[in-house]
């Protein structure tokens, strides 16, 4: 919970990565609700009232994130739409989440037209899903062209997307400590690298379960 509190405060300070943290908190809250209501006393460690208090903290963090006001920077030079079209498309290719591509397309009509580029959605499909998965969910338009954008969101509903994180928590199996990869920790093991395992957001939530 201390780690979560620091993450939320970081998001509030930087005004970045709001959506994924809100999704993480919502997933955690739903999981804890199920445990507290169904079998909390036999699964959760500690007094059940403490977990209820932690759930209240999660709701408070969610409210803070809902109320966040993004400060738009004052334009001091070139913007994305000032770049040549090929460079704009090149930047869009770096987005690994189709929802981000859709959001970007809602900024201006010109960007909206660019984000409909079939090649962008084709690369997204090929990045996250196997050829076999794609072949099973083919969608063809009236013009005989593959509907890559529609296929991407259909594939997302059927299969898990490839997870990518700029920074992940690490768990030391020797010291039983959670730490950020770039901060490290004073491990006493002979081979520290073999003791450290990455922890995904879902894996972090699973630590609250037995």
Which terms would index this structure?
F-box-like_dom_sf; 210 residues; 56% helix; 11 helices; globular; nucleus; mainly alpha; three-stranded antiparallel beta sheet
Count of DSSP strands? 3
Number of helices: 11
Principal-axis shape? globular
Computed CA radius of gyration, to the nearest angstrom:
21 Å
Beta content:
5-15%
Q: Secondary-structure blueprint of this entry?
A:
Blueprint: H1 2-14, H2 18-43, H3 48-66, H4 85-92, H5 98-105, H6 109-114, H7 118-128, H8 131-136, H9 148-158, E1 169-172, E2 177-180, H10 192-195, E3 196-199, H11 201-206
Helix pairs in contact: 2-3, 7-9
What is this entry, summarized?
The chain has 210 residues and is mainly alpha-helical. It has helices at 2-14, 18-43, 48-66, 85-92, 98-105, 109-114, 118-128, 131-136, 148-158, 192-195, 201-206, and strands at 169-172, 177-180, 196-199.
Report on this structure.
This protein is mainly α and 210 residues long. The protein is built from eleven helices and three strands; from the N terminus they run αααααααααββαβα. It has a three-stranded antiparallel sheet. Helix 7 runs parallel beside helix 9. The radius of gyration is 21 Å and the shape is globular. Pathway: Protein modification; protein ubiquitination. Pfam families: F-box-like (PF12937). It comes from Salvelinus namaycush. One of its GO terms (biological process) is protein ubiquitination.
């Amino acid at each position: 919970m201390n780690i979560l509190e620091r993450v939320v405060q970081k998001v509030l300070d930087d005004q970045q990565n709001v959506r994924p943290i809100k999704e993480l908190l919502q997933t955690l809250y739903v999981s804890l609700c199920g445990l507290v209501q169904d079998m909390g006393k036999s699964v959760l460690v500690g007094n059940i009232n403490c977990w209820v208090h932690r759930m209240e903290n999660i709701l408070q963090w969610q409210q803070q994130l809902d109320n966040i006001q993004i400060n738009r920077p004052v334009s001091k030079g070139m913007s994305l739409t000032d770049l040549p079209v090929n460079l704009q498309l090149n930047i869009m290719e770096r987005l690994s989440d189709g929802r981000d591509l859709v959001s970007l397309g809602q900024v201006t009509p010109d960007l909206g037209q660019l984000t409909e580029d079939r090649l962008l959605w084709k690369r997204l499909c090929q990045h996250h899903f196997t050829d076999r998965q794609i072949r099973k969910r083919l969608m063809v338009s009236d013009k005989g062209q593959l509907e890559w954008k529609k296929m991407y969101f259909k594939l997302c509903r059927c299969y898990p997307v490839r997870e990518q994180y700029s920074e992940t928590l690490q768990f030391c199996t020797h010291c039983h400590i959670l730490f950020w990869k770039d901060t490290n920790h004073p491990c006493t093991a002979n081979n520290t690298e073999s003791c450290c395992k990455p922890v995904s957001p879902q894996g972090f939530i699973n630590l609250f379960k037995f």
